[in-house]
Amino acid sequence: RLPIRLEIISLHPLIVLDGAHSPDTMATTIDGIKRFKPGARVHLIAGFDANEDAPSMIRQLCTLPLTSVMATRFTNLQLYPKAANPADLARLFRKLHRGLPIQPILDPKAALAVSQRYSRPGDILLVTGSMFLAGEIRSFF
User: Fold this and answer.
1) Percentage of residues in the chain having pLDDT higher than 70
2) To the nearest whole percent, how much of the chain has pLDDT over 90?
3) Which of 21, 103, 110, 125 is the most exposed place for a label (fewest CB within 10 A)?
4) Burial of 114 per CB tally in 10 Å (0-12, 13-18, 19+)
5) Does 88 score more than 90 pLDDT?
6) Which three-class secondary structure string do you get for the chain?
7) 114 touches 67 (CB < 8 A)
């Protein structure tokens, strides 16, 4: 067991943290989510490092049964100042998933609150794209 690697931090709603930050680790994350609760609606909170292959990982994430997407960033930019712009990430998601609620939100705590409002019993709220983001959201619990 590794912290922020398909880590469940809440059951109501079901919140899963995953620090996947490359196409290879994202493939493992997506496989785990699909096996964990097949057919469950997924609310996604995603944030990436500016140096990561976000377009590839976003294409992968769009294979999940997404219900909402909050594009955000980690806020400790003094520690690691290369967070991808949430507005740019939201545009990438919109190209692949028209009609889905996709919002850029700078504050990850606000992104979590919005995702929790969207979620219903039986849904999965997945936080992924960066170890920094997953770690920051983990600190809220």
Assistant:
1) 95
2) 77
3) 110
4) middle
5) yes
6) CCCCCCEEEEECCEEEECCCCCHHHHHHHHHHHHHHCCCCCEEEEECCECCCCHHHHHHHHCCCCEEEEEECCCCCCCCCCCECCHHHHHHHHHHHCCCCCEEECCCHHHHHHHHHHHCCCCCEEEEECCHHHHHHHHCCC
7) no
